[in-house]
Amino acid sequence: MARFLYNIGSLAYRKKWPFLAFWLILLIGITTLAGLYSKPTTSSFSIPGLDSVTTMEKMQERFPGSSDATSAATGSVVIQAPEGSTLTDPAVSAEVNKMLEEIRATGVLKDAESVVDPVMAAQGITAQMTPALEAQGVPADKIAADIASISPLSPDETTGIVSMTFDAAAAADVPAADRTAVTDILDKYDDGDLTVVYNGNVFGAAATSLNMTSELIGLLVAAVVLIVTFGSFIAAGMPLISAIIGVGIGIMGIQLATAFTDSVSDMTPTLASMIGLAVGIDYALFIVSRFRNELIGQTGSNNLEPKELAQKLRNMPLSTRAHAMGMAVGTAGSAVVFAGTTVLIALIALSIINIPFLTTMAIAAAITVAVAVLVALTFLPALLGLLGTKIFAARMPGPKVPDPEDEKPTMGLKWVRLIRKMPLAYLAVGVILLGAIAIPAGNMRLAMPTDGTSALGSAPRTAYDMTAEAFGPGKNAPMIALIDAANVAEQDRPQAFAKAVEQFLTIDGVKNAQVTQTTENLDTAQILITPEFDAIDERTSDTLQALRDNTSTFESETGATYGITGVTPIYDDISERLSSVLIPYVLIVLVLAFFVLLLVFRSIWVPLIAALGFGLSVAATFGATVAIFQEGAFGIIEDPQPLLSFLPIMLIGLVFGLAMDYQIFLVTRMREGFTKGKTAGNATSNGFKHGARVVTAAAIIMVSVFAAFMAQDMAFIKTMGFALAAAVFFDAFIVRMMIIPATMFLLDDKAWWLPKWLDKILPNVDVEGEGLSGLDKARTAELKESTSVGAS
Questions:
Q1: CA-CA distances (angstroms) from residue 214 to 221, 713, 724, 790?
Q2: Residues 228, 194 share a domain
Q3: 773 and 728 inside one domain
Q4: Same domain (yes/no): 148, 241
Q5: Read out DSSP for 380-425?
Q6: How far, CA to CA in Å, does 790 sit from each of 310, 701, 785?
């Protein structure tokens, strides 16, 4: 493979225009198509086959007017009267009705006439339900509880809820202009005496809009790190341009994919840009750094002064520079291919667990990573070829960048020598430190994103909190029990429904239960269950489980069956499903990646150490994330919340790939030295010396790129940004730069042990570029000969 990549790199450097044109035309073409045909992303997280989803589908069959609560084009407006007033006051009521009249006039709602004053709606509900329930012999206190559970007016009459349905098949299909037409009116009245906020599927989609601030911050920090790393403003720009091209193609491809599938969630582009930008910069950084080293080696002298080096480069012929690029792509590029492969394995393995929205996010991120690898291997060499001898011009003032071939010890070499003196001590410190940070992970709680997890001060969060305060927290977490009495005698069906209500009211955590709708032949009924607690409270999950545990008792007593559905049960089931597949997913990733690393390092111990180190860094990441975001440690987060349900599995998928990146880039240089005759200890030290500076730069860039996403309002993106930044920090600076070299020193020659029978059957992928050594020697001899001829 190294020889193949050598040919690609040198060809792209020499014949730059076809390669540059291909990627630029591809970017322009995909951008144009995305602009013409892309559709809005979706905020639905539904998973086929879940009990709650199956019940929802059954309800839609029995009640054709029903819709998927997680994706319906619905929204709610929460209205609160001025302090000291109620919504029943004539002046307040007049203002509310004026606002609703303007909303109805927009023409964007499906049934505009259903949008009415909550006071009038409450009065209508009371007038309709009271005599009907009294006729059934329902006690007065139960009638009051039933009315209060569905009334859009709070008991103190200060707060009301107006529900509305937009004229669209799903929330994702609502045009931004339609949503804005309504929110502009609501915001206008919110600036007056009324407090007017909104939430729900349609308005929640507006709240999750993203900006480019995070990407710009990440690029800015990356630029500073790259300038320091290369000592040249021009060279520093190369990884940035390469990464932007790769991410641009990936993101535009995701936008174009919305024209063909409705499973692209609104988080997918951000996750893809997050991982694509980080690995794109890193992969380009490794190749440019190796190219720089190869050019210095081709000058025939190390530790040149900047002016001398610049002069040497200006006089260097194209064939020599193309050879240096070929060597860089053949060696560092090989590591890039396998590093990218581990990321792809970790991401694509997410599709095995069969969760559609997660599969889409994983595939989108994987494609972006694959593009980043291809861009680094082809577009980047062509871009460097375009600049020619000016690649390291525009030098940064200050000390020159250290030369890895210089005999003077670098900071990396000084550090690894300290570890070599006391490897066991450094190993113990690293393990104990990460273990201590991981302790809070035992308290981790998971929940799906709701209006209650939105940013404080946002309209959805304010509406959620106002509803909980005025109506009780359970108002935000309604459940629906679908009672199937098709196998029950027709005359016994009403009693079965009444029995269901009776049993539900005895379950802990149920505030109220009432029949809200039945089919004409009474074979099916919907029972609205109002819990005592909100959607992200653990006690609500316990209540849901208790309701489901009661199904066998109910069936034995009545002959009817039931299932529980609604947004809260669906999200709870998703969380449970994600938790249940976490361990199988980790095992799949570890097994697949073990074989990849076995091919790369041709060692049993190195892949095992890499995997164990990954486990430590992930455990510490979970501990730090739980402590800060869930438990509110250090007061950094003013609104601690449970972690989002799919964060652990996404984090593991992303972090494993990134961790293996550093493992490959750092340890391949160690193996390269070992295969060339160095002792195991010296190979570890020398490999660390060569890789430490560039891996440090790459880690700082990744930490900065990920941490910048904490500026986003979306809870998932904010938490994921922190977790990824923490994971990279722990893995790069504690695991890969302390625990791994300490373990390598302790194992010594045993680190590279591989059974002979396995060595014979494993294909040689030549990541270290051993197959290029003869080519490099021939090129060096050719240069010496031409130099001696020129001198004579």
A1: 11, 11, 14, 54
A2: no
A3: no
A4: no
A5: HHHHHHHHGGGTT-SBPSSSPPPPTTSSSPPHHHHHHHHHHHSHHH
A6: 20, 44, 9
Q: Are residues 722 and 780 in the same domain?
A: no
> Is 339:600 a contact under the CB 8 Å cutoff?
no
Q: Among residues 530, 419, 549, which one has the least CA distance to residue 467? A: 530
User: Best-predicted range by mean pLDDT among 223-237, 419-433, 434-448, 696-710?
Assistant: 419-433
Claim to verify: residue 179 and residue 306 sit in the same structural domain? no
**pTM of the prediction?**
0.80
H helical segments located in 626-714: 647-675, 680-708
Q: Can you point out the beta strands (E) in 556-647?
A: 561-565, 643-644
Instruction: Please give the full DSSP string across 196-265, using - where no structure is assigned.
Output: EEEESHHHHHHHT---SHHHHHHHHHHHHHHHHHHSBHHHHHHHHHHHHHHHHHHHHHHHHHTTT-S--B
- Out of 185-189, 227-231, 302-306, 323-327, pick the least confident: 302-306
The answer to whether position 356 is within a domain reads yes
Among the residue ranges 20-24, 145-149, 323-327, the one predicted with the least confidence is 323-327
| 148 shares its domain with 264 | no
Mean pLDDT of 220-224: 83
Is residue 360 domain-resident?
yes
pLDDT at 561: 96
Is residue 646 a contact partner of residue 580, using CB atoms and an 8 Å limit?
no
Counted domains in the chain: 3
Would you tell me the crossing angle of helices 268-298 and 233-257 to the nearest 10 degrees?
150
Average pLDDT of the chain?
86
Tokens of 730: 């722990």
The percent of residues above 70 in pLDDT, for the chain, comes to 90
Q: What is the residue range of 329's domain?
A: 1-43+212-404+766-792
Quick one: which of 695, 694, 674, 698 has its CA closest to 686?
A: 674
- Tens of pLDDT, residue by residue over 754-770, are 898 888 888 877 665 56
What is the radius of gyration, based on Cα positions, of the chain? 31
Q: Are strands 446-447 and 524-531 parallel, antiparallel or unpaired?
A: unpaired
**CATH number, domain at 636?**
1.20.1640.10
